[in-house]
């Protein structure tokens, strides 16, 4: 796929191997059926364990059978998965960055032993419950509560827009612990078969259709003390997970744009109008040139992020910049690719329209474009403009 600036030359052997493995997987196992899954509103659940066997969940972490790959290798993996479909990359991001990461970073030894190998292999599926019906961009106003009882906590509240909730074995739920001195946010490992826990599927999405999204309802759901993530308290918990996932989105969105470019390039070369391929007309060449340029800039941003993350210097605001830019870039370029395909471009036979509608979600979740503008604005000025 497009690599105009020759970034391939900077990759190590392992990074190339990870990228090629993911690319082959997407080409052979995903692309043939993903259009139909998108139309049907289903996720290819048969691929969940195969993705685990291939090491696609949190491979940048180590221990508990995880390989500790470089951040570049991890990014390339997500790039390739999202070239297939944003729903596929969302699966890997949620399982890896939003469920395995908090257990790895903040969990007890027992929690790690119980969950990390099972989630890493795809034998179990997890989801991340932060957003609530009344609190999306401002999750710190969450209303879900955790009240202490004799041997643990009783959870009450509801979470919505939760990727994978209806097919999950485990939900990482963020809730406020009611106490006399403040209500600190804590993370709870909630098995979805517990009494008082229900997960409903949200139907009729017009975006990210090849991904299962749902609600989590918690009605006097009891969890024992050992299900609390012991290593973190406050909004730092969920926000640090979001930084990990946004890092993956910065890479993944570039993959979606790359797939759109390849599709438009091939189509324009084959499709003839007025006696020659449409790629021979200046208007179409300008579109390809702009698309290639914007994708290259997105790739540079993603690679730079990986270097900073690898050496421990990456700031959440820098991740915001890359998530914001690359999601917007992919959203805009997928529209141009769709346009270049003419009438055929609005069908599921070609990927750009599917990517385009998926990217509406990607532009919105994990912090909307607006919210990332405010995060960067706060960083640049020192003045918060959220309220
Ligand atoms: P709102 O916060 O109500 O925002 C509405 C609009 O107002 C947006 O345009 C926003 O940018 C703007 N806005 C809000 N505040 C400000 C402000 N201060 N200044 C200027 N403009 C503002 N959440 C999870 O917890 N787990 C998941 O797995 C998950 N998966 C998702 C999957 C899908 C398909 C979707 C669509 C969402 C998912 N989400 C998930 C939720 C997602 O993160 C939220 O939708 C997102 O944070 C935005 O919240 P909201 O939808 O409530 O919009």
From TrEMBL:
- Give its E.C. classification number: 1.3.8.6
| Domain Acyl-CoA dehydrogenase/oxidase C-terminal stretches | 234-378
Indicate whether tRNA processing appears among the record's keywords.
no
- The Acyl-CoA dehydrogenase/oxidase N-terminal domain extends over 13-123
| UniProtKB keywords | FAD, Flavoprotein, Oxidoreductase, Transit peptide
**Gene3D superfamilies in the cross-refs:** Acyl-CoA dehydrogenase/oxidase, N-terminal domain, Butyryl-CoA Dehydrogenase, subunit A, domain 2, Butyryl-CoA Dehydrogenase, subunit A, domain 3
Acyl-CoA oxidase/dehydrogenase middle domain: from which residue to which, for each copy?
A: 127-220
Domain of life from the UniProt record: Archaea
Q: In which pathway does it act?
A: Amino-acid metabolism; lysine degradation; Amino-acid metabolism; tryptophan metabolism
A GO MF term = flavin adenine dinucleotide binding
Q: What class of enzyme is it?
A: oxidoreductase
List cofactor names only. FAD
**Pfam families, alphabetically?**
Acyl-CoA_dh_1, Acyl-CoA_dh_M, Acyl-CoA_dh_N
Which InterPro entries does UniProt cross-reference here?
A: Acyl-CoA_DH_CS (IPR006089), Acyl-CoA_Oxase/DH_mid-dom (IPR006091), Acyl-CoA_Oxase/DH_mid-dom_sf (IPR046373), AcylCo_DH-like_C (IPR036250), AcylCo_DH/oxidase_C (IPR009075), AcylCoA_DH/ox_N (IPR013786), AcylCoA_DH/ox_N_sf (IPR037069), AcylCoA_DH/oxidase_NM_dom_sf (IPR009100)
Keyword Flavoprotein present in the record's keywords: the answer is yes
Which Gene Ontology terms describe the biological processes this protein takes part in? fatty acid beta-oxidation using acyl-CoA dehydrogenase; fatty-acyl-CoA biosynthetic process
* Family annotation (PANTHER family): GLUTARYL-COA DEHYDROGENASE, MITOCHONDRIAL
- Tell me its family: Belongs to the acyl-CoA dehydrogenase family.
Name this polypeptide is given: glutaryl-CoA dehydrogenase (ETF)
